TrEMBL record:
<keyword id="KW-0808">Transferase</keyword>
<dbReference type="GO" id="GO:0005829">
    <property type="term" value="C:cytosol"/>
</dbReference>
<dbReference type="GO" id="GO:0019563">
    <property type="term" value="P:glycerol catabolic process"/>
</dbReference>
<keyword id="KW-0547">Nucleotide-binding</keyword>
<feature type="domain" description="DhaK">
    <location>
        <begin position="7"/>
        <end position="330"/>
    </location>
</feature>
<dbReference type="InterPro" id="IPR004007">
    <property type="entry name" value="DhaL_dom"/>
</dbReference>
<dbReference type="Pfam" id="PF02733">
    <property type="entry name" value="Dak1"/>
</dbReference>
<keyword id="KW-0067">ATP-binding</keyword>
<dbReference type="InterPro" id="IPR050861">
    <property type="entry name" value="Dihydroxyacetone_Kinase"/>
</dbReference>
<dbReference type="InterPro" id="IPR036117">
    <property type="entry name" value="DhaL_dom_sf"/>
</dbReference>
<keyword id="KW-0614">Plasmid</keyword>
<dbReference type="Pfam" id="PF02734">
    <property type="entry name" value="Dak2"/>
</dbReference>
<keyword id="KW-0418">Kinase</keyword>
<dbReference type="GO" id="GO:0004371">
    <property type="term" value="F:glycerone kinase activity"/>
</dbReference>
<dbReference type="GO" id="GO:0005524">
    <property type="term" value="F:ATP binding"/>
</dbReference>
<dbReference type="InterPro" id="IPR004006">
    <property type="entry name" value="DhaK_dom"/>
</dbReference>
<protein>
    <submittedName>
        <fullName>Dihydroxyacetone kinase</fullName>
    </submittedName>
</protein>
Amino acid sequence: MKKLLNDPSHVVREMLEGLAMLAPDTALLRDANVVVRRDLPEPHARRVAIISGGGSGHEPAHAGYVGDGMLAAAVCGEVFTSPSTDAVLAAIRASAGPNGALLVVKNYTGDRLNFGLAAELARAEGIPVEVVVVADDVSLRNTVGRGRRRGIAGTVFVHKIAGAAAAAGKTLADVAALARSAADAIGTMGVALDGCTLPATQQSSFSLADDEIELGLGIHGEKGVQRTKPMPADQLTDTLLTAITDDLRLSGGERVALLINGLGATTPMELAVVARAAINGLRQRGLRIERAWCGTLLSALNMPGCSISVMRVDDERLALLDAPTKVATWPGAGRVNVDGATGIAAGAAEDAVASSNQAAAQRTPLQLAFDAAARALIDDEARLTELDSKAGDGDLGSSMKRAGEAVLAIPATAWPSAADALADLAVTLRRAIAGSSGPFYATALLRASRRLGESDAPAAPDWAAAFDLAVKAISELGGAQPGERTMLDALRPASDAFTAAVDRGEPLAAAWAATVDAAEKGAASTASMMPRVGRASYLGERAVGEPDGGAVAVVCWLRALTPFVR
């Protein structure tokens, strides 16, 4: 796997140097991989120092949380490896004063040993030290006692609460009590869609087949507790929430904070979908969601997947979560807009061109023709996606599928005329298709609709003229011409063939067969064309070799209309 690294053995130090360069309020110790606050007062004036850390590869944890209101120092071991005792001791010495230090430790053997020994050594030097161990992984609830569970993303909650308590001037004993109480109130469970790749290796920590996901994983690339089939985000989120809420024994009316955490290779889009499901799931359980955050806060290198953390809260804990911090990676206030997803009416009136004569009737022959074209586009989604991915952004297949689904959802409609039908179809496609395809098809249909509206009973020549005007509308709107590798390379020869056949007086079925044949040849010819417009033009010669997806889509729906043209 390609990586933006130099020597993998130096990656942690080089990463920390980069992070420190980007955070003026921090400094990196010369002889240890420890990031400390630069703005700490003299030792005698320091408040309780909150120190955390562990193996690297969890960024932005832990160095990213160093700053006023959170950590005084972060100790960073090698990738997925506990830092040494000496490094932890160096962090304590560099950041703590007479008020002492609180070490926030995730429940892994190496971390407990090294942080624990460093605490003993610091106490021997006269520095008061308390240790709080976070063990929030509920996936192990049926295997081991809570004290032996792993510490994972819920640790970020503890960083914030302990940091805010220390910033408020509380004693070490009080800060430790608040941190322990918070740690006991957190449940977390994660899911991986695949393994992660360590900087020094070219292989994933584990591999999952396309029909597998891993539930209950840790944060060091280790396998989870259950391998199962993929499931929709809502169902997967409910599975995680059930484990968490059952373990915490949460009951209706209780107040909670929520954290949706990405594991390193999960897009904000996916995390937001999970956040939606989690918020809905907690509300359905009768819980009050006081705060919620979503983002990558404690990763596992480049692992695709996420974890969900839920923490019981009360007024005191909420106040600490809300306390100000200068740490840029803390994701904000966490206010929840639980009613925001209900939507706000756009306020626009129905399009004047939309037909008002809808009835619960049989689908007309024209609507059945639309349905056939729609199903053909849906069936061709994969092929259109593949073609568009080679020369564009890969969204053509999904756009055409949305168009097809929208057409099939049109209720059985008794349109007064063919012109009204095309106008209605323009509205449907304009709303269903994002990107360029929607405006192109809608404009073409509106232009054709106006031409058909000029006749009370449109005949074949009227349809041919409408087809020609529709193709011209697309060319005018997009600025493309035939020969530039676009949908026009199928549409223009198709329109010309239909017009010529109608002018010769050929039967409609024969005229349409010639139309489809011309479109197919035109689409095939785009494989050797140099793109001149659109995203494909950015690729130049690299786009040559496969037909244009937009032209192939035209052939798809034109062919599907064949049984209805007679």
